[in-house]
């Protein structure tokens, strides 16, 4: 687990029992796409039906799944605390706000929100993502928690 990606970083913090750090309060908004739907769109592009993808650039995303990083953290914490494997992991270490300058360094500029236009993917590929954010969060969290317990890594406390 773990990277600069919001959901994996937040899950890593929960699994390790380290504080969740929200840069500038976590007010930045992002659109989250379920991995299965993202892969489905990629396959459609690779299949290139009737050559419609030749020379085209596609945005892949779910503009309906917009949430702030803070809201994403809140949903993950709620689902983590309700998960059947919760007892395998350290106590929740809380949320800490950190300034972007301290987190990323001088000169970093973040975008407050990112919402992809997927009109071209809808029109040319018939692709329309439909999996909601909460379902995607549940599936992603469940996958990572089961992997962490199975591998015995990331601070799991009890062995099955």
Topology:
Layout: H1 6-16, E1 20-23, E2 29-31, H2 35-47, E3 66-68, H3 69-82, E4 95-98, H4 100-104, H5 119-125, H6 133-151
Parallel strand pairs: 1-4
Antiparallel strand pairs: 2-3
Helix pairs in contact: 1-3, 3-6
Describe the structure.
The chain is mainly α and 160 residues long. It has a single domain (6-151), classed as NAD(P)-binding Rossmann-like Domain (Rossmann fold, 3-Layer(aba) Sandwich). It contains six helices and four strands, in the order H-E-E-H-E-H-E-H-H-H. The protein has helices spanning 6-16, 35-47, 69-82, 100-104, 119-125, 133-151, and strands at residues 20-23, 29-31, 66-68, 95-98. It has a two-stranded parallel sheet. Strands 2-3 form a two-stranded antiparallel ribbon. Helix 1 (6-16) packs across helix 3 and helix 3 crosses helix 6. It is globular, with a radius of gyration of 18 Å. The two termini are 21 Å apart.
In the CATH hierarchy, what is the class?
Answer: Alpha Beta
Q: Report the end-to-end length measured between terminal Cα atoms.
A: 21 Å
Q: Helix- and strand-based class?
A: mainly alpha
Number of strands: 4
- Round the Cα radius of gyration to an integer and report it: 18 Å
Low-pLDDT parts are 156-160
Quote the average pLDDT: 91
CATH superfamily: NAD(P)-binding Rossmann-like Domain
Q: What proportion of the residues is helical, as a percent range?
A: 40-55%
Count of domains = 1
What portion of residues belong to β-strands?
5-15%
**Shape by Cα distribution:** globular
The CATH topology label is Rossmann fold
Q: What order do the strands of the largest sheet run in, or round the barrel if closed? A: 1-4
């Amino acid at each position: 687990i773990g990277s600069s990606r919001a959901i994996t970083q937040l899950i890593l913090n929960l699994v390790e029992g380290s504080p969740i750090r929200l840069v500038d309060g976590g007010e930045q908004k992002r659109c989250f796409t379920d991995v299965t739907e993202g892969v489905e769109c990629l396959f459609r592009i690779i299949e290139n039906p009737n050559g419609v993808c030749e020379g085209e650039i596609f945005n892949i995303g779910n503009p309906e799944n917009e949430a702030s990083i803070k809201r994403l953290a809140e949903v993950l914490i709620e689902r983590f605390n309700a998960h059947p494997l919760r007892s395998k992991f350290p106590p929740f270490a809380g949320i800490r706000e950190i300034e972007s300058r301290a987190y990323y360094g001088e000169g970093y500029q973040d975008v407050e929100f990112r919402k992809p236009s997927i009109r071209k993917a809808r029109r040319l590929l018939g692709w329309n993502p439909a999996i909601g954010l909460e379902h995607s969060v549940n599936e992603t969290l469940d996958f990572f928690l089961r992997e962490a317990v199975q591998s015995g890594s990331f601070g799991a406390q009890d062995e099955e």
